[in-house]
Specification:
Pfam families: dTDP_sugar_isom. By secondary structure, the protein is mainly beta. The protein has one domain: Sandwich (Jelly Rolls). Helix content is 8%, strand content 41%. A six-stranded antiparallel beta sheet has the order 1-2-10-7-12-5, with helices on one face. Strand 1 and strand 2 form a beta hairpin. The radius of gyration is 16 Å and the shape is globular.
């Protein structure tokens, strides 16, 4: 497994080691010991243990986010796409961070098998680039409705460069999310 820091160094792209032959392929989708060793090698903190796994399936053009949870139930997320493709985004909402208000993105898909580590203190969202995009992620805390928050996906201040898709499908809840300038932050 290779961890690559993004332009926001706390958000890390993970390239797993994939073994392929004429039968197909094999990879470790998660190895706690290696994950922690690689984070330590990069000088990054070890997250709390993962306590919940989530799995969603989206049609092409479905946009989910930008979601986050406030403390004491803030969530770090280890995200990946097991079928299809997604444009994945993390936004730094830590007020004491040098990268506050900045965002990073990565294309995660079933071919590249990349994952993204998004620590606590970030809002997260994605848009499905293909039908039947299966998105799976681990979280460092349980879902808590009282701590749940969202930022409007197309906030002008954030200016996220989402891919052009003919028809975006956004839930009412996500469409009614707050602007970045008014959110509850860390």
């Amino acid at each position: 497994m290779k961890l690559i820091q993004t332009k926001i160094p706390d958000v890390v792209l993970i390239e797993p080691t994939v073994f392929e032959d004429e039968r197909g392929w094999f990879m470790e989708s998660f190895n706690e010991q290696r994950f922690y060793q690689e984070l330590t090698r990069l000088g990054l903190p070890i997250p709390r243990p993962f306590v919940q796994d989530n799995h969603s399936c989206s049609k092409k053009g479905v946009l989910r986010g930008l979601h986050y949870q406030l403390p004491p139930h803030a969530q770090g997320k280890l995200v990946r796409v097991t079928q299809g493709a997604a444009f994945d985004v993390a936004v730094d909402i830590r007020t004491d961070s040098a990268t506050f208000g900045q965002w990073v993105s990565a294309e995660l898909n079933s071919k590249n098998k990349h994952m993204l580590w998004i620590p606590e203190g970030f809002a997260h969202g994605f848009v499905a680039l293909e039908d039947n995009t299966q998105f799976q992620y681990k979280t460092t805390d349980f879902y808590d409705k009282e701590c749940e928050r969202a930022i409007k996906w197309n906030d002008v201040e954030l200016a996220i460069n989402w891919p052009v898709i003919e028809e975006l499908l956004v839930s009412e809840k996500d469409s009614a999310a707050e602007s970045f300038s008014t959110i509850d932050v860390f």
